[in-house]
Amino acid sequence: MLFWQILIDGFAISALYALGATGFTLIFGVSGVLNLSHGALMVAAVVAAWVAGGDLGVGSYLGATIGVLVGLALTMLTYFAVVRPLQLTRKIREQEKEIFILTATLLWGIMIQELIAYLYTNNAKTVLPIVEGVVMIAGVRTPANEIFTAVICWLVIGLLWLLVNRTRAGKAVLAASMNARGVTLLGIELSFVYVAVWAIYGVLVGIAGVLLGMFLGVSSYSVGPLTASAFSIVVLGGLGSVSGSLIAAYVVGYLETITAYLVSPAYRTIPALLLLVFVMYVRPRGLLGRR
Amino acid sequence: MSPAFSLVGRIFSSRTLWISLIVVVLASTLPLYVSGYILGLLTIAYYFGVFSMAWDLLFGFANEVNFGPTFLIGLGAYTAGILDNLYQPPILLCLIAGALAAVTGGVVLALPALRVRGPYFGLTTLVAVLMLQNFVVVAAGLTGGEIGLTVPDVISIDDKVNYWIALGFMTVSGLILYGIARSPVGLILQASGQDAVQAGALGFNVTKHKLAAFIISAFFSGLAGALLVFYLGAASVGTFIDVTVGVQVIIAAVIGGRRTILGAVLGSIFLIGANEALRPLGDLSTFIVSAMALVVVLLFPSGLLGLLTRTKEAV
After folding, report:
1. Distance separating alpha carbons of residues B51 and B38, to the nearest angstrom
2. Nearest-CA residue of chain A relative to B66?
């Protein structure tokens, strides 16, 4: 009984983690940017869906769509207002840009977080679920929303896989992550590829955020932990490796669920952190990372 | 002239330093004509300045982005606080214990962390903060948990004495850190930060120098943390360990000017002052301060001190 409970809950949470981390690793793989405002973008999508669904009363479908769109819009703003200027500036040495982008996106994340706290308080917000009701799976009462979350996550990840591996634009993105200079030599405009990747990332962030808002609910305090969990999953799986992050998401998701059920919810994050430190020590490039 | 003398000569030949020393002398007379409220703010800003200077040594020189300055600060603060709470030894002993704990923690953190580069290093330090935070909450019997820890002793109850201690401590720390940054060691650190392979090929032990930078940074962070505990009379996760505190330290150093050490103090005073002035705005104050920091990062990457001294960054 408990076994099935852990198996089902862990699967849904891990699927959500996987979706959140996929976008994060994608932009790192292609443009070398670690976006520390990741959590803030997700929370912003949730709050937008919450406001649209609740205050404006547009219903759960439209609310969720608005949430995803706001996530996308903010992500593009992050790229054009924060990341792009730093990449183009000549005031900072090339090898120091990485650190500046880390710091700038961190500050940007804090700005979004504080603005949300100011406008909509620190209270936890839950988005109206699209599907309601409870389903029995192997004797476990499972909210239908949980199944919905897992299905959507895998559907989106599957679509992303098709996009990257089967379409011309996707192949350009994949090629850019392998060798940016090679791609430009083939006559593909690299800046278009970057914009495309950030747009994909924005959609992923929006969907992951809204699903998280339906499943668990978030507050502006979740910004830091969300970024940290995406960051650790991605590092655990290997920066830039999408399949690595998928595996890592499941490892972290199940570790947390097992700890929460068998030990105590208070210790939820500790085993995953310990594992992360251990992996960094014995294999700094992560499970499937490239050198 | 012996190397030690030429080093001292080089440090004191810097114009920035002489100006700073004059400012310090002027600052030491402030208690004569300024209210206790402003003195209290400046006291905290000075300790914060030491946090930021210690952080700048790692970021500006060794080019290592340490997202966990509060790991070192918190270790120093809590060790000193817990020791005082349990046994009430002389305060000096608590301070030494705090600094030593931070150095030990720094070494434990640096050894695995320095094996990894760039973002991985940043993440390791971030994880260290989260673990310390978890530990403080879990070991509530010892640390006071989420409520916090009250310390039975304080160094002094007099505003002015506290102010002078903070100013003196900041000045001494600043001199030492600035000296290190200007010394050959600082140059090697800078070289290792910019191109570790090439610095290694020139025969410098990159890991050893970075470890040394980490230890020095840890020592000053821990000592400043311990002193701040005895000024505030209490320690809590929210004031010493939380990631947001670490972010403030980072913002102060970035606003003040990276790779200047002394700019960090300027940034801290600005930050503490701005936070206080904008307090009536509530949550919006952090938003405004972060936005200002972001503008500085985007438009003036060399910070306030960089603007004042107009040192051109090599392109």
Report:
1. 20
2. A99
- Write out pLDDT tens, residues B203-217: 888 888 888 888 999
pLDDT of B314 higher than 50: no
Q: Which residues of B touch A118 (CB under 8 A)?
A: 282-284, 287
- Take residue B252 and report the two structure tokens written for it: 């102060």
Residue of A36, A92, A114 best to disrupt the B interface, most CBs of B under 10 A: A114
What is the model's pLDDT at position B95? 92
Q: What is the pLDDT of residue B223?
A: 94
C-alpha to C-alpha distance for B145 and B237, rounded to whole angstroms:
8
Closest approach of chain B CAs to the CA of A131, in angstroms? 35
A186 or B115, greater pLDDT = A186
Place of tokens 């960094």: A280
Q: Which residues of A touch B137 (CB under 8 A)?
A: 266
CA dihedral B121, B72, B59, A111 (to 10 degrees): 90
Q: What is the CA radius of gyration of chain A?
A: 19
**Interface contacts A/B by beta carbons within 8 Å:** 117
Q: Which domains are present in chain A?
A: 2-282 (1.10.3470)
- Under an 8 A CB cutoff, do A95 and B194 touch? yes
Contact predicate B120/A100, CB 8 Å: no
B3-309 maps to CATH 1.10.3470: yes
- pLDDT < 70: residue spans in chain A: 290-291
Q: Which residue of A has its CA nearest to B293?
A: A107
How many contiguous H segments (helices) and E segments (strands) does chain B have? 16, 2
Q: Is the ipTM above a cut-off of 0.85?
A: no
Task: Indicate the pTM of the whole model.
Answer: 0.85
The average pLDDT across B170-182 equals 91
C-beta separation of A242 from B76 below 8 A? no
3-state DSSP helix/strand/coil percent for chain B, to nearest 5?
80, 0, 20
Q: A80: which DSSP letter? A: I
**Share of chain A residues as helix, strand and coil, in percent rounded to the nearest 5:** 75, 5, 20
Residue range B254-280: mean pLDDT, rounded = 87
Q: What is the pLDDT of residue A201?
A: 93
